[in-house]
Design a protein that fits this description.
Length: about 375
């Protein structure tokens, strides 16, 4: 089965967006036979239908569907030739209406407008059919989608829309407890997905702050634990979870260097950088009144203890997805605590902060 995923485009496709989808497919134990990125379209061949699970979970997709054909360097003749080869009577057997949508990705190859190509393909489909099926642009019983990328034309049947409009509503400024360190909900959700979390596993955020990661994990139905050293943040997290009607959360106050938890399958977290949140080390508190090099030294001290303790409670093969400032040199510390670095993605926040999202595996 070949599926397309229309990626959202605000991040490089080959980075978090494509890898989030791939991680979700792995999490549901489907076999991935092949993947290919065409600009903002990810095409994945799997052994089973994973489109619904991905659409319900992924933060960085607009929509997904089944691929009918892909052609390189398309022109109208080539598109028409391909359409003639397709048995639309079979595809539209029980359907009463249809529509065609075309999306041209920036830098796309064909000069024909989206509307004209929609009309052109719509007419070819009608000519191809043995019976009358109406075009219904508002509520079609089958929706065909075509994507014109820089060099390719990907055509398929749309199956599901992604959750982006709902996720956007959970931006930190909409919460009853706002804190400037609050993670963007798209990134928080993608980090949970990159951990390959599923319903049989447990997830822990030991620096939970105002709760962005916990919110996304709980809304995807996962067993979730969170802790923070700061009581005010914990109270804020409770307010934020309750405002979204999220029940059954497991929150406790703890220093991330000594979590009171025995075993966990995934750790997804965003430690303090000392900019908008304090780094707390016992009775000492550090923030950006110190120089950056002092702050980074303090953060590294915290992370050495964090990685040591948290690698003890993480199951073997378990993932730790962690956001850190991209200028922090941390690889050696990670590698010396029974982790391998599987992936690294940069995420630009503002002029003076780019985060690196690390995907680590406990060995
Ligand atoms: C960057 S914020 C986390 C933000 C969170 N992801 C959110 O979306 O709101 C880091 C958090 O770490 C907490 N913190 C600082 N030092 C800590 C420590 N030693 N142990 C546990 N939490 C700590 C801070 O109180 C802060 O809430």
């Amino acid at each position: 089965m070949i599926f397309y995923f229309h990626l959202s485009g605000e991040l490089p496709s080959n980075g978090i967006p494509a890898n989030e989808v791939i991680a979700i497919i792995k999490a549901v134990n489907a076999e991935i036979k092949e993947t290919q990125v065409y600009d903002k379209i990810l095409v994945v061949t799997t052994n089973t239908d994973i489109s619904k699970q991905v659409a319900e979970r992924a933060a960085y997709i607009h929509r997904c569907g089944k691929v009918i054909f892909i052609i390189s360097l398309p022109d109208l003749n080539l598109i028409n030739k391909k359409l003639q080869e397709i048995d639309f009577n079979q595809i539209m057997k029980k359907k009463t209406s249809f529509a065609v949508r075309i999306k041209k990705i920036k830098g796309s190859y064909l000069s024909i407008s989206e509307e004209n190509l929609e009309r052109y393909i719509g007419n070819q489909i009608i000519n191809n059919l043995d019976r009358n099926i109406k075009v219904n642009l508002i509520n079609p019983s089958i929706l065909f989608y075509g994507f014109v990328t820089e060099e390719n034309f990907i055509f398929g049947i749309n199956l599901y829309s992604g959750k982006r409009p709902e996720i956007r509503k959970r931006a930190p400024h909409t919460r009853p407890f706002f804190h400037p360190c609050g993670l963007d909900p798209f990134l928080a959700r993608a980090m949970v997905n990159l951990s390959e979390m599923d319903r049989s596993k447990t997830l822990y955020d030991p620096f939970c702050g105002s709760g962005s990661i916990l919110i996304e994990s709980k809304l995807m139905g996962f067993k979730t634990y969170g802790s923070d050293i700061n009581q005010k943040m914990l109270k804020g997290t409770i307010l934020n979870l309750r405002a979204l009607n999220i029940q059954g959360f497991n929150l406790f106050r703890a220093d991330a260097r000594s979590p009171c938890i025995q075993k966990i399958d995934c750790i997804v977290t965003d430690p303090p950088y000392g900019r908008s949140t304090h780094i707390e080390l016992g009775k000492l508190t550090f923030n950006n009144t110190k120089s950056l090099s002092n702050l980074y030294r303090t953060l590294k001290n915290l992370l050495v203890d964090f990685f040591r303790k948290n690698s003890e409670i993480l199951t073997r093969g378990g993932k730790c997805v962690i956001a850190l400032p991209s200028t922090l040199e941390i690889d050696n510390i990670i590698l010396s605590h029974n982790f391998i670095i599987q992936q690294k993605f940069d995420f630009f926040v503002h002029r003076s902060l780019t985060r690196t999202i690390f995907v680590l595996e406990k060995v």
